[in-house]
Design a protein that fits this description.
mainly alpha, 10 helices
C-alpha cells in the first residue's frame, strides 16, 4: 500500500520549476556582460564618444560602467535574482493550483465535515497542483483504510497520516527548488560589493600615494568605482532577500494549509469509524 500512496502525487501538471539552475546563471552572465558592454559602455554615454574617457556629466550609465570589472559580476547576480524570482513565482503559482488556497482548504474541510469524500476528491481534481496531489494521496489512503480489515482504528489513522506526510515530502523538492540559490545571492551580492569597494579604494589610495594634481582623475575614478559597486551590490542583496523571504512565506503558508487538511482527514476517519473487534 505504501507504494501506491507514494505514487499518487507523482502526477505533475504545469510548470514545476527549472531543475538545472546553472543554465539560468549562465544566461544571466551572458546578459550581464552584454548589458555592461553595450548599454553601460555605449560610447554615447562618454565624453568624446569614447568609453575610455570620463562619462558625460550626470550620465548614470557611464558612471556605473566606470565601476570596473566587478560591475558585470554584480549585474549577473542581480539578473539571476530577478530570473529566479520569476521562476519561483510561476512554480509556486502552479503548486497552489487553479483556485484560491484558502477557499480550497475551507471547501475540503466542509466536505469532510459531512463525510462526503467523493466531493473532496472532486475539489482536488479541480484544484490540481501540489495541493491537489497531496490531498488526493490522503483521500486515497482514507478509502483504502475503509476497505482494509484486520487493523485497529489507531493503526488506520496512522496509515492515513503517514500517506499524507509521504506525499508532502515528495512534493517539497518542487516547492524548495532554487530557494538555496536565492539565499546565497543575499550574501554573495554583499560580499561582491565589498570586494568591488575595496578594489576602488585601493585605486584611490594608490592615486593619493602618487601625489600631484595630475592624479586627481585617478583618485575620483577609484572613489566612483568603490561607490558604484557598493550601491549595485546592495541593490542585488535587497532584491534577493525580498524574493527569498516572500517565497519562503508562500511555501510556509502552503505547507500549513496541507497540514491542516491532512489533520482534518485523519480526524474525520477517526470520528466516523468505530473500533473494529
Amino acid at each position: 500500500m505504501a507504494n501506491s500512496q507514494k505514487a499518487a502525487p507523482a502526477k505533475k501538471q504545469g510548470f514545476q520549476g527549472v531543475r538545472n539552475a546553472i543554465w539560468i546563471i549562465v544566461l544571466c552572465f551572458i546578459a550581464g556582460v552584454c548589458f555592461y558592454q553595450f548599454v553601460l559602455g555605449n560610447p554615447s554615454n562618454f565624453q568624446g564618444g569614447d568609453n575610455a574617457n570620463a562619462p558625460l556629466p550626470g550620465n548614470l550609465l557611464g558612471t556605473i560602467y566606470k565601476g570596473g570589472i566587478v560591475v558585470p559580476v554584480i549585474i549577473t547576480l542581480l539578473f539571476t535574482a530577478i530570473a529566479l524570482s520569476v521562476e519561483r513565482s510561476l512554480a509556486l503559482g502552479n503548486a497552489n493550483g487553479k483556485g484560491k488556497l484558502a477557499k480550497f482548504v475551507a471547501d475540503v474541510k466542509a466536505a469532510l465535515a459531512t463525510g462526503d469524500i467523493d466531493k473532496a476528491q472532486q475539489l482536488c481534481d479541480k484544484q490540481q497542483g501540489v495541493v491537489g496531489n497531496v490531498v488526493t494521496a490522503s483521500l486515497k489512503a482514507y478509502k483504502e483504510m475503509e476497505a482494509t480489515s484486520g487493523l485497529k482504528k489507531e493503526q488506520k489513522v496512522s496509515k492515513i497520516q503517514q500517506a499524507h506526510e509521504e506525499a508532502v515530502q515528495l512534493e517539497m523538492p518542487t516547492l524548495q527548488m532554487n530557494m538555496p540559490i536565492l539565499a546565497t545571492l543575499v550574501t554573495l551580492g554583499t560580499l561582491t560589493a565589498l570586494f568591488g569597494t575595496v578594489v576602488g579604494m585601493i585605486k584611490s589610495f594608490a592615486a593619493l600615494a602618487a601625489g600631484g594634481g595630475g592624479d586627481s582623475l585617478e583618485l575620483s575614478t577609484g572613489i566612483s568605482e568603490a561607490l558604484v559597486n557598493t550601491a549595485s551590490g546592495i541593490l542585488t542583496s535587497w532584491v534577493a532577500v525580498i524574493a527569498y523571504n516572500f517565497y519562503s512565506n508562500k511555501i510556509d503558508k502552503l505547507t500549513y494549509a496541507l497540514d491542516e487538511v491532512g489533520y482534518t482527514i485523519s480526524k474525520t476517519y477517526e470520528a466516523n469509524h468505530t473500533e473494529e473487534a
